[in-house]
Amino acid sequence: MTGDDPWAALAGEFVEGAYATVKGQVRTYVLHHQLLDHLPSPPATVLDVGGGAGHQSFPLARAGYEVTLLDPSPAMLARAEHRLGREAPEVRGRVRLLPARGEDAAAATEGQQFAAVLCHGVLMYVEDPDPLIGSLCACTAPGGVVSVMALNAATLAIRPALEHRWADALAAFGARREQGVLGVDTRADTVAELEELLRANEAEPAAWYGVWLFTDWMDVSADPGEVRAVAAVELEASRRDPYRQLSRVFHLVARARPDSRAENRRTLPITAPRHQRSHSLRDPAATGYRLRAARREAPLTLEGPPRTIRGVPAPAATVTASAALAQLKPGPARPRASCRTRFRSVPSPTST
Questions:
Q1: Whole-prediction pTM value?
Q2: 157 and 69 belong to one structural domain
Q3: Is 69 exposed, middle or buried (0-12, 13-18, 19+ CB in 10 A)?
């Protein structure tokens, strides 16, 4: 069985070991809160590719999301099934487990497209990230979220240096491989490289974050109060430079481009990260109006006098961007008319 399933011998150490550590708890906490800044409202569908025992996606099921966890390892799926059995019946009803490789996700899910596709800690174990990134994007609905966590090629020298392995640290500058904490050889990526791959697969990068920093550099007490405190610090550091650049792994979030050929499709919300939501979008064709991505509790709003746009009555206070723009009549050319702001339909965001 171990020969057929390379993760069989590591499943216990991975589930009961790595995820139970302070660093494992911080990883789950930080990624969860970063995701909530981008996910549409539950019960949106989420595909967790290489989801292991469900540490990242089961909390989403508790929050009301419909989760499909896909993993090629029977041992990891058995761990996921065991952990799922401890959840409330309504949570179990929102989760299905599928055995398949990430590259085969579209076939395994019978062509279903999801509001969000997660792939955390998987790219580091594949030689070529291109087929897997293509598969993730193929499973993402237009306007949906693609979320990947990868090993950071820019920081491979930090861990051996902190362990006083100076020859290894020197060799790690410019390297692309390292032996992970589980003793498995891993491959690293850069943010720029994965952004390019995502764009090539019709997904536009939206934000990137660090995941852990301080807990990778020091031993932290497992006291629950201490863990909560360090998790809050790690979450804040993950959003800021230069801290996020020093994280040993990074979290990259992209959004699948809308499919202009699909008519009458259901569009998904675009939600800016919470710390960026004060920024507004201005439509240059409708001076005096602002289309602003509001807080999660409210849909996109159209605001500002007067109540008509070029003689057309303004739409209701709650609109999508495309619906508002559709009511604009062509007008005279304005200066710098080539500078246009692109909008996508924005239904009501979710509350965190």
A1: 0.73
A2: yes
A3: buried
